[in-house]
Design brief:
It is a single chain. It is built from 7 helices and no strands. With about 120 residues, the chain is an all-alpha fold. The protein folds into 2 domains: about 70 residues, Orthogonal Bundle (434 Repressor (Amino-terminal Domain)), CATH 1.10.260; about 35 residues. Helix 4 runs antiparallel to helix 5. It is elongated and about 50 Å long.
Amino acid sequence: MTPFGVRLRELREEKGESLSKLAEAVGVSAAYLSALEHGRRGRPGFHLVQKIIGHLGLIWDDAEELVELARLSHPKVTVETGGLDPRATEAANRLARDIRNLNGDALDRLLALLKDESSAR
């Protein structure tokens, strides 16, 4: 699953919305929406995310969160490290190699570190 898929399912269930009803309302198939929720499709486009936000009646923080999670939910990531510190290249390659072996606690620590560094800028 992707962060977008997890949150979409949570929001959909909170609103009591079925997968097929949401899919019909935003103009996609239920199979496609299910694939998004399960991370079997790439990140959704901006317009689809906006339709989902509108249909579910999301405002402010929930809407912003869903847009951000869509941006962060591409299951195949390319990291360009050319011109950066050589440690950035090493870090990117180690993460690509080892991400499958990281447990939930390690992922939480890594995400917290990245969020802290991002907000410090």
